Amino acid sequence: MNTRGNRHLLPLAVALLFSGCGEDPPQALGTLEFDRVTLPAPVAERIVSIEVREGQRVEAGARLLTLERTRTGAQAQAAVAQSQRQREALAELQAGPRAEDIAQARAGLAAAQAQARDASAYYARLQPLGKRQLVAAAEVDRARAAAGNAQAQVRGAQAALDELRHGTRPEQLAQGEAALRAAQAQAEAEQAVLQKLDLVAPRSGRIDSIPYKLGDQAPVGAPLVVMLVGDAPFARVYVPEPIRADVSVGQRTRVFVGAGDGGDERSYEGTVRMIRSEPTFTPYYALTGSDAARLSYLAEVQLSPGVDLPAGLPARVEFAPAPRGPKGGP
């Protein structure tokens, strides 16, 4: 048997077999798209100026529109003032009591001690008179209570003086530092919101839409500007289930853009950058048998950099056919 001749005839037979079948390369249909960047409204303020128009190309950092600053600016100033107040309060705690406060506490202690001595002396004079029943017992009791009260005031004044002498407690300093950090963080947050009132382009791209117009007041989080960004568009296509196993991330493809009937399609190289693992539309567990072929999987095919095409054009992606197994056939 001439095995050498058979090896030469095998590729030709395979080619004739597939040419006889006349089947097209696996393909998927969709549209051209760009990555979208949405700039939401940071606050519910009125739009006072719009610097761009839809379809305009802008560079990163370009101003797009401006929101009214009156209320947000006042809130930022109040936050800065509160931060300064907490800073001064912490400085007061760190400095400790003033010498004048300590002197005042000493004077209060001396006055309490003098009152205590006077009350004690009066009680000492009444005690023998009370024993001889020369004064009422109630008068003696009042004198004893006044003496005790005066001694308690002396102890309170002494404690107040000791507190000033010992200075600020570490726990109070920690509380003051925490309050200052919180106030500073709030001030930084308000300043960040104030800066966001001037919306700027985060990346170079094209303005796709401006949903709100001059004078509108959009709610918080509403999209103010939608941008299309990226060096080139990508084809968002739906891969049929029969060829899903033959499509993988990084696979090279051909992307045809435009209507195909009139021969106006333009061809570009592309690379599969994403394909979903879950089917779109009907879930897989709802289909059985041949119905499973109706499933489709969303995929994205990135075109080469430098391709300048608008979004929304119809696109057709052809994948290189995968090698067939022993049971494959037309």
Q: Which key features would you list for this structure?
A:
330 residues; alpha+beta; 6-stranded antiparallel β-barrel; 5 helices; elongated; disordered N terminus; HH_YbhG-like; UPF0194_transport; HlyD family secretion protein
Instruction: Give the radius of gyration.
Output: 43 Å
First-residue to last-residue Cα separation:
29 Å
Overall pLDDT confidence? 84
Strand order of the largest sheet: 1-7-10-9-8-11
Q: Helicity, in percent?
A: 40-55%
Major sheet characteristics: 6 strands, antiparallel, barrel
Q: Globular, elongated, flat, extended or rod-shaped: what is the shape?
A: elongated
Count of discrete alpha- or pi-helical segments spanning 4 or more residues: 5
What is the N-to-C order of secondary-structure elements (H for helix, E for strand)?
Answer: HEEEEHHHHEEEEEEE
Structural class: alpha+beta
Organism: Luteimonas notoginsengisoli
Protein name: HlyD family secretion protein
Domain YbhG-like alpha-helical hairpin: 75-187
Pfam families: HH_YBHG
